[in-house]
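4.2 Preliminary Data

To establish feasibility before requesting continued support, the project team ran the inverse folding procedure on a target of 164 residues. The structure was first converted into the token representation described in Section 3, and no sequence information of any kind was made available to the design step. The complete token record follows.
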């Protein structure tokens, strides 16, 4: 099954184009200026690769990267769409280890590649876990705002209206 570029690759290409554009104005990393690295190398420090972690992996974008890359690995291992979607849904809700044990019921391949099925699922789940701390930190102001709003609404409701 041939695919277009992954979301990670598209992000890397976009960042490379931005860095190339900025380079035209003299804005660049010193290592690029010295010729030690290219703008693509700098972009990869942000986007990472399927085999290495980039800065964006610690944001919610990392969850998208891991989900797409894991799904593509599953497509290689389970060619049938219905079986793959059943496994994907089961594994994302029950965990990769349990899914690896019960996948034998979903596909009749006599145990071939079953041990490999847990790895893409684990990668997807860890990708979600990588993005959670930063997302939780980023949402703290929203949570505080909603608490403040709730307190203001509650205090307005507690004000007694004057009687005539």
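Position-by-position output of the design step:
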């Amino acid at each position: 099954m041939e695919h277009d570029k992954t979301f990670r690759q598209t992000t890397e290409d976009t960042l490379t184009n931005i860095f190339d554009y900025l380079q035209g104005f003299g804005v660049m990393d010193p290592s690029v200026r010295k010729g030690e690295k290219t703008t693509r190398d700098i972009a990869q420090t942000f986007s990472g690769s399927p085999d290495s972690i980039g800065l964006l992996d610690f944001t919610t974008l990392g969850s998208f990267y891991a989900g797409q890359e894991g799904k593509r690995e599953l497509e290689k291992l389970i060619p049938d769409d219905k079986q793959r979607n059943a496994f994907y849904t089961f594994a994302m809700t029950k965990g990769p280890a349990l899914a690896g044990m019960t996948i034998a019921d979903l596909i009749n391949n006599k145990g071939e590649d079953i041990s490999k099925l847990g790895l893409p699922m684990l990668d997807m789940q860890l990708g979600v876990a990588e993005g959670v701390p930063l997302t939780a930190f980023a949402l703290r102001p929203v949570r505080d705002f909603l608490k403040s709003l709730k307190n203001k609404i509650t205090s307005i409701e507690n004000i007694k209206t004057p009687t005539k």
